[in-house]
TrEMBL record:
PROSITE patterns: PHYTOCYANIN (PS51485)
Protein's organism: Citrullus colocynthis
Xref: Pfam families: Cu_bind_like (PF02298)
Signal peptide (residue range): 1-21
Sequence ranges assigned to domain Phytocyanin in this UniProt record: 29-149
Spans annotated as Disordered: 152-188
Organism lineage: Eukaryota, Viridiplantae, Streptophyta, Embryophyta, Tracheophyta
Listed name of the protein: Phytocyanin domain-containing protein
PANTHER family: BLUE COPPER PROTEIN, OS12G0454600 PROTEIN
Compositionally biased spans, kind Pro residues: 157-167
Length: 212
C-alpha cells in the first residue's frame, strides 16, 4: 500500500511538472533591463555597467511584455528591427519605419528616466544607446532579444485607431433642415414644439419677404 501511494504521488508529481513546463505564460511580464544595474554606461571604466547580452539571455520575452529601461539622460534607448542599423551602432541612416528613438538625448546630463518599451513585433528586436558617436553601443550598451507569441498582443496594444470623431446628430435633425441650433440652458438643447413652430413660421415669413 505504502509503495503504491508513493508511486502514485510520484506519477502525479511528474504529471504536474510536465503540465507546468508546457503551460503557456498566463500574464504579461515587465522586464527591468539589466536587472538591479539598470541601463547605464560607466564612463569611468568606459564600459556598460553590466553585460546586457547576458541579461537578455536570462529572460523569455513575449508579445505584450514591456522592457523597462531604468536609466538617465546620459544614455539613449533606440529600438530597431533592422540588423544593419543595430550593428552600425548609429540611427543616423535609419528609417522611421523600422527604428524608434525612445529618448533622443539632450544636453541635460544625469536626469533620471524610466522608459517603458512595449514589445509589439514578434522575432528579433534590437536595442542600443547611440550616445557618443556609437561608443556606448560598441562598449556594451547593445543587446538583441527574440520576442515569442506568448499570449499575443493585449487589446491595449493592438487596437486600430479609433474612427474620426463625429458630432452626434441632433435629436430633431431628421425632421428639420440642418440648421445650427444654439444650445440653451434649461432645456438641454432640445427645442420645445412651440419654439419649433415659431421658428418655422418666422422662416416662412422671411422666405415670402425674400420672394417679394
Ligand atoms: C508594465 O509597465 C507598463 C508601462 O509602464 C505599465 O502600464 C504596466 O502596468 C506594467 N505592468 C506590470 C504588471 O507591472
Ligand atoms: C564604474 O566602474 C568603476 C570601476 O569598476 C566603479 O568603481 C564605479 O563605482 C562604477 N561607477 C558606476 C556609476 O557604476
Ligand atoms: C572608450 O573606448 C573607445 C573604444 O571603443 C575609445 O575610442 C575611447 O577613447 C575610450 N574612452 C575612454 C574615456 O577611455
Ligand atoms: C557578455 O556576455 C556574453 C555571453 O552572454 C559574452 O559572449 C560576451 O563576451 C560578454 N561581453 C563582455 C563585454 O564581457
Ligand atoms: C553623465 O554624463 C556627465 C557628462 O559627461 C558626467 O559628468 C556624469 O558623471 C555622467 N553620469 C553618470 C551617472 O554616468
Ligand atoms: C536597414 O537600415 C539601413 C540603414 O541603417 C538601410 O540602408 C536598409 O535599407 C535597411 N534595411 C531594410 C530592410 O529596411
Ligand atoms: C521600411 O522602408 C524601406 C524602404 O525605405 C523598405 O525597404 C522596408 O521594407 C520597410 N520596412 C518595413 C518594416 O516596413
Amino acid at each position: 500500500m505504502a509503495g503504491e501511494t508513493a508511486a502514485f504521488t510520484a506519477v502525479v508529481a511528474l504529471l504536474i511538472t510536465a503540465v507546468a513546463s508546457q503551460t503557456p505564460p498566463t500574464a504579461y511580464t515587465n522586464h527591468t533591463v539589466g536587472g538591479p544595474a539598470g541601463w547605464f554606461f560607466n564612463a569611468t571604466n568606459n564600459i556598460s555597467t553590466t553585460n546586457y547580452s547576458s541579461w537578455a539571455a536570462s529572460q523569455t520575452f513575449n508579445l505584450g511584455d514591456f522592457l523597462i529601461f531604468r536609466t538617465n539622460s546620459n544614455q539613449t534607448v533606440i529600438q530597431t528591427y533592422n540588423f544593419t542599423t543595430f550593428k552600425s551602432c548609429s540611427s543616423d541612416d535609419a528609417s522611421d519605419n523600422d527604428t524608434i528613438h525612445y529618448y533622443g538625448g539632450d544636453s541635460d546630463f544625469n536626469k533620471p528616466l524610466i522608459i517603458p518599451v512595449p514589445l509589439t513585433i514578434k522575432g528579433p528586436n534590437y536595442f542600443f544607446s547611440d550616445v557618443n558617436d556609437g561608443v556606448q553601443c560598441e562598449r556594451g550598451m547593445a543587446f538583441e532579444i527574440q520576442v515569442n507569441t506568448g499570449l499575443g498582443l493585449p487589446p491595449s496594444l493592438n487596437q486600430p485607431p479609433p474612427p474620426p470623431y463625429a458630432t452626434p446628430p441632433d435629436s430633431d435633425s431628421t425632421q428639420t433642415p440642418p440648421l445650427t441650433i444654439p444650445q440653451t440652458k434649461g432645456n438641454g438643447g432640445f427645442k420645445s414644439v412651440a419654439n419649433l413652430r415659431r421658428d418655422f413660421f418666422f422662416m416662412a415669413v422671411m422666405a415670402l419677404l425674400l420672394l417679394c
